[in-house]
Specification:
alpha/beta, five-stranded mixed sheet, about 35% helix, 7 helices, 12 strands, seven-stranded parallel sheet, Ribosomal Protein L25, Chain P, Alpha/beta knot
Amino acid sequence: MHRFYVPNIAFPAIDPTGPDSAKRSLTLDGQLARQLKTVLRVGIGDRIGLFDGSGLEWEVQIDQVDRTEVAVRLISTVESVPEPFARVTMLLGLARPERIELAIQKCTELGAVRFIPVLSERVQGGVTGAPSASRLDRWRRIAIEAAEQCGRAVVPPVDEPLPVMDAVNSQLAARQLFCMWEERTGDSSPLGEALKSIETQALEKNAGQRETGTGGCEMAVLIGPPGGVSHAEASAIQEAGASLVTLGPRVLRSETAAIVVMSAILYEMGDLGG
């Protein structure tokens, strides 16, 4: 069944066949209506899924297809795909747009909860090299489309870009942060070792929440731009309280590193099927 993100849906969470059934109807318009009509060629009686991005999802039936609008009726609520126990905020050093797009798409599929574009010393244009408003809108659409495709009922926001230390400090106020650092030094540790250091604490603290599907282990990951963070930035990030973490001897592209880190975290925290 095709699924679509529609923010601010006002369906009541009660029996759709009961009284006040008019509240179970919704009119879709704009780009979504055009896609349903001209691309998918939906007809009366067809069913689709709608979700609001916060974790709520519904199955609806097509009741009417007009030139610019599609009317649907609520059939039932849908049990959403569980979010990962590891709630990962990704800080992405700015790179060529297609690299950021791939990282956002794949990390959304893997369960990242937020993306923060980061301006740093080795970003082209430095701290003035921020993406345009239209570029940010495109990245947000990519997150929406990835959530639609992978079955998530949550859409991770893509924030306005921040200078690297502003982003780091904002995250350290609420969660542990790992900075991916390509140099193996006495100040850095392998990713597996870093994750094991928090796994036991997180699982003990949140054991009951995993069973109930609430809460989770909050963490943030900083992926540097092509060329990585500079030595001065790495020192400042570590002094602020973050951990420097290595991904082994191979030098990975920034988008590859983002996908590898998300996958490793999910595996270590038991979010990949066990």
